[in-house]
Write a structure and sequence with these properties.
The chain is an all-alpha fold. It has eleven helices and two strands. Strands 1-2 form a two-stranded antiparallel sheet.
Length: 375
């Protein structure tokens, strides 16, 4: 008995139930059923408190529901707490379902259209998912920054520390950030990623999750959202450039050169802005409000990370230039082939003796007539 997959990677074969192939093909359906269990549990009175622990946001410090006296109520503000772990688990399941939908309905169709190799297909799947994630992070985080007024008054990033309550959208943004990087670990198994790529992707997910956890846990949510939005801007441009390179192949065009220049410029600007923002916040803004050891550790980690990214970027750029030079030298130069000049064939006058006897008599008669006319 087998089950035909609906969401996720489709296959004509029906593998045995509970086998590895069955779980991989139907993982999105299985996880979506788990999500539905939580949603149905929220509607039942007896299970509603347990389900709301995973779906709703908790640890609110202020806010009231609308009443007759206050029709609009007061906005709810939240802080970090242990119940957020349950929310991260639930929204990581939602991320798995969204990952499968994006993979099937967009990325798989693109790969079939361009007939990519295995290496290019793996890069397409990775960059395609990250482009969407960083775009959502950029737009959602940018909206939160504008709503909170951080961009117009930078002192909000450290004023009142550590009493930094979050709005509903800002807290949900942080929960989704943590949930996304948690969901990337099981996706390595679900998407059949090669074993040699696991180490690099796990390191990337672990580093991103560690940054989110530290910024969220130590009440650096305000400066953290600004740093992550800047980083997402650079990553969005970088993965867009990578996708263009994957689909373009070996052809070079003006769009590729333009995206390369934009990618380099945005990357350098984001690194500089992150360093300036970090120094302003941790060195000057939080002086006296946060412990010295915490400020030095946070600033050192931020500077080290920016230097590491910049070093990798410069190394990769030098490597690409060297490969381009070697490729240009290895190609044989096309020699201009001179077209051979056509030799003019001189007409050799024919002798009457070479002609047949009948033609010789005809020529003699014509000459005699011409001579008589001349007289």
């Amino acid at each position: 008995m087998g089950v035909k997959p609906t969401i996720g990677r489709k296959s004509n074969k029906n593998p045995p139930i509970l086998s590895h192939e069955f779980v991989i093909q139907n993982h999105a359906d299985i996880v979506s059923c788990v999500v539905m269990v939580f949603l149905v549990g929220l509607m039942v009175q007896s299970t509603s408190p347990i389900a709301s622990l995973f779906i709703s946001l908790h640890h609110n410090v202020s806010g009231t529901e609308p009443t007759r006296d206050v029709p609009r109520g007061e906005p709810f503000l939240y802080e970090a707490g242990w119940k957020d772990i349950c929310a991260v688990f639930f929204y990581s399941q939602v991320c798995i379902v969204m990952h499968a939908i994006l993979q099937e309905y967009i990325l798989d169709k693109i790969s079939k259209k361009y007939h990519l190799s295995k290496s290019r297909l793996s890069a397409l799947n990775e960059s395609g998912q990250l482009v969407v994630f960083h775009l959502v992070t950029l737009l959602w985080g940018g909206d939160a920054i504008l709503r909170e007024g951080f961009i117009f008054n930078i002192s909000y990033l450290w004023d009142g520390y550590p009493d930094h309550p979050m709005s509903f959208l800002l807290k949900l943004w942080w929960v989704v950030q943590a949930a996304y990087w948690v969901h990337t670990i099981p996706e390595l198994y679900f998407q059949k990623v090669k074993k040699d790529e696991w180490a690099g992707r796990i390191r990337q997910a672990a580093a991103a999750f560690a940054f989110v956890a530290v910024a969220y846990g130590f009440k650096f949510q305000r400066v953290g959202v600004c740093l992550m939005v800047l980083h997402s801007l650079a990553e969005f441009v970088a993965h867009s450039y990578r996708l263009n390179t994957i689909m373009r192949g070996e052809r070079e065009d003006y769009l590729d050169k333009f995206l390369g220049v934009v990618n380099g410029s945005v990357f350098v600007c984001v690194r500089l802005c992150s360093l300036v923002l970090g120094v302003l916040t941790f060195y000057y803004g939080l002086a006296g409000a946060a412990p010295l050891l915490l400020r030095v550790a946070a600033l050192s980690a931020l500077v080290s990370f920016q230097v590491f990214l910049m070093f990798n970027f410069i190394t990769e750029a030098i490597k690409q230039r060297q490969e381009a030079r070697q490729l240009a030298l290895s190609k044989p130069k096309k020699e201009k082939k001179e077209k051979p000049k056509k030799e003019k064939v001189k007409k050799i006058p024919t002798d009457d003796s070479d002609l047949p006897e009948v033609d010789q008599n005809t020529n003699k008669t014509l000459r005699q007539r011409q001579a008589l006319k001349a007289k």
